[in-house]
Design goal:
The chain is built from 11 helices and 11 strands. It is an alpha+beta fold. Strands 2-3-4-10-5-6-7 form a 7-stranded mixed sheet, sandwiched between helices. The chain is globular.
Length: 351
């Protein structure tokens, strides 16, 4: 661990962040979920989408850009397909409500989808896919974001790095979870590098004119590059269509950046899918087949025998065990920033 890092107990951190969000006007239950989702993301090792984002969320509550007490509601419906209005609430709360609704519909129809309009940044997509897996469903979660990806050779962003996650219950220690954004790296990685004062690889992003850069500050004002070239670019288009276009929400340039438009709702859209595999297969058979799938991955030979294969979701599980025991590493700068926010907002707990 670097010298500027400090370890914080995850339960203490979660309680502190819960109090911050409650003081910002959120309902206690919503504040607890929002905080838990962020800290859990840190426990997975995805620090770019964890409590690092708390200060900007608080700022957006204060500016009126985010509604701390949204009343989500269904505005369009046809069978197992619905569209939810997020009432400009935090993406974490709106995303939770949408996936929970998709799971309810899947329990009736075996497969369901809920699109979302008028939401905000929802963090790691895996949060919502996992909500479905926790209820024995396959979960698919995606969201559109501001255009921040240039096509190979392009000089202007044409789509966002639109995150996508798929979670499958294994009925074992951890679910299968594929969670990725469709850029070479997530934008949060640039934010983290900027906070740390580190350089970035030249194939991560470009400056504002489309030129490769190793400066995270320039990259944050520039564009990301798609994962897998045109393949990632095409997938990003598809996520924007599902999340923003067919739901009647915004897409492309109509989405607002939470950093560049700090006082305005992001208008972000999501799309949640829930599938009930137990509608077509017994639980015991599903468990056995998922175990066989896992064992096939784990026993796959590697040329470096000191290494091993991991199923998507496994590294996050192992990191959670480690950080739950040792503590969540955050920078001293962030710890000081959170402490100052707590004092300013009258939070009695400390870190």
């Amino acid at each position: 661990m670097s010298e500027d890092k400090t370890l914080v107990n995850h339960e203490k951190l979660e309680a502190f962040v819960t109090d911050l969000f409650a003081q910002a006007g959120m309902r206690e239950e919503d504040a607890a979920f929002h905080a838990s989702a962020l800290v859990q993301t840190n426990l997975w090792g995805v620090d770019s989408h964890g409590v690092l984002r708390v200060p900007v969320y608080i700022e957006r509550f204060r500016s009126g850009a985010m509604n701390p007490r949204p009343e989500t509601k269904i505005v369009r419906a046809a069978g197992a397909l619905e569209v939810m209005h997020g009432d400009d609430g935090p993406g974490f709360i709106v995303g939770r409500d949408a996936m929970n609704r998709a799971v309810e519909l899947a329990e009736e129809h075996s497969l369901a989808a809920v699109g979302v309009i008028r939401s905000n940044h929802f963090g790691a997509a895996g949060i919502y896919a996992r909500l479905a897996a926790e209820r024995d469903k396959i979960g698919v979660a995606m969201t559109n974001v501001i255009p921040n990806i240039v096509a190979p050779g392009g000089s202007k962003p044409v789509t966002g790095n639109n995150p996508l996650a798929i979670a499958v219950p294994t009925f074992g220690e951890f679910p299968f979870v594929l969670d990725m954004s469709l850029s070479k790296v997530a934008g949060g990685k640039l934010l983290l590098a900027r906070k740390r004062g580190e350089k970035i690889p030249l194939d991560w992003a470009t400056d504002a004119e489309g030129r490769p850069t190793d400066d995270p500050e320039e990259a944050f004002d520039g564009f990301l590059l798609p994962v897998g070239g045109y393949k990632g670019l095409g997938l990003s288009y598809a996520v924007d269509i599902l999340s923003g276009l067919i739901t009647g929400g915004v897409f492309g340039d109509d989405i607002k950046s939470m950093y560049r438009h700090r006082g305005e709702p992001s208008l972000t859209c999501h799309f949640m899918i829930a599938i009930d595999p137990l509608a077509i297969m017994g639980r015991e058979e599903m468990e056995q087949r998922m175990d066989a799938f896992y064992q096939r991955i784990k026993t796959s030979p590697m040329w470096d025998e000191s290494k091993q294969m991991y199923m998507p979701g496994e590294i996050e599980y192992l990191t959670t065990l480690e950080r739950a025991e040792e503590g969540v590493p955050i920078s001293q700068t962030l710890r000081d920033e959170l402490t100052a926010l707590g004092e300013e907002m009258g939070v009695s707990r400390t870190l």
